[in-house]
Amino acid sequence: EPEVTQTPSHQVTQMGQEVILRCVPISNHLYFYWYRQILGQKVEFLVSFYNNEISEKSEIFDDQFSVERPDGSNFTLKIRSTKLEDSAMYFCASSEARRTGGAETQYFGPGTRLLVL
Amino acid sequence: GQNIDQPTEMTATEGAIVQINCTYQTSGFNGLFWYQQHAGEAPTFLSYNVLDGLEEKGRFSSFLSRSKGYSYLLLKELQMKDSASYLCAVRDGRNYGQNFVFGPGTRLSVLP
Q1: What is the pLDDT of residues B94-107, one digit of tens each?
Q2: B102–A42: do the CB atoms touch at under 8 Å?
Q3: What pLDDT score was predicted for residue A25?
Q4: What is the count of residue pairs from A and B with beta carbons less than 8 Å apart?
Q5: Of B65, B82, B87, which Cα lies nearest the Cα of B5?
Q6: B73: distance to nearest CA of chain A, Å?
């Protein structure tokens, strides 16, 4: 069964450094998403991406964050100048959803646990 | 604003039935989803409702009332492996965007 993959599974970085989290969505999916979940807290939407551009973004997704689809398979989240409060599990997800707002669900990757020291 | 409420914790016995409620207030609505999340793992899809009524899928059923901003997830014949957090999420339908708002999750403990 196709699945979303994410690398690395764990990342430790120093405050102020840049990190890139990588995701390979399911191959025939059209929408891609990033979420984060701070330990013990709820899942928070960061951004959705469709047709090589950002479709929606939350208040969390400020200038510190950027996303890119550098090739036909990868989808990346870059966090510039990391802060202690960026420590969280970051989930990538993908869906077949069409812009008509269809019923397709999101399939989540296993997550990258980011720890900022 | 956007707000989704769920009970924080619930406990039930193996073999029993449990109902997990979710209420929401969102600026748009284009579907309500239920996910299961085991500790330290990613959420996995359980069910989807966009029209009022009950959707049944094996041991799991989900109900939606859009006029009341209310949904529930019904789990039957509980098994120990059902111990997990259950997340209610609403897809905000603004601009055909794919913006999901998640509730805080309900941690279900299934006891023998």
Answers
A1: 655 567 889 999 99
A2: yes
A3: 95
A4: 63
A5: B87
A6: 17
